[in-house]
Amino acid sequence: MMRKANAVPEQKSYSSNARNFDRLSSGDSSGGSVYNNSPSPAAAARRRAMVGCKTESSRREAMKIEGLRGLNERECNLRVMDGDAEFMLKALRELDCPTCPYGIKGA
């Protein structure tokens, strides 16, 4: 078997830190996490919606979907804690991005 002279073998990462740097250099900023924008337990849905409330792009998307004029982080958090997490989860599903930070496009 003959190998090409200019063939470079694939680089092997031996530590989790090296794998993280490899993932970041390839453009994946997710931190290796997988995010679920449709959690079944109510507590998990509230936690995920609260993360969405912290991100400007997800609040903007929620305003667009709900037809709201303004939604700051505090108002968003209060709405989620009052039991309405679904409005933010809808926005997060629209902005789903597995390789973005927090799994949210624009975060």
Describe this structure in words.
This protein has 107 residues and is mostly helical. It has five helices and no strands. It has helices at 16-25, 42-53, 56-66, 73-81, 86-94. Helix 2 runs antiparallel to helix 4 and helix 2 crosses helix 5. It is elongated. The termini are far apart. The relative contact order is 0.18.
Please tally the β strands and state the result.
0
- What is the terminal separation in angstroms? 49 Å
Q: Count up the helices.
A: 5
Shape: elongated
Q: Give average pLDDT, whole number.
A: 87
Strand content: under 5%
Keywords:
single chain, 0% strand, mainly alpha, 107 residues
Brief characterization of the structure:
This protein is an all-alpha fold and 107 residues long. The chain contains 5 helices and no strands.
List the topology elements.
Blueprint: H1 16-25, H2 42-53, H3 56-66, H4 73-81, H5 86-94
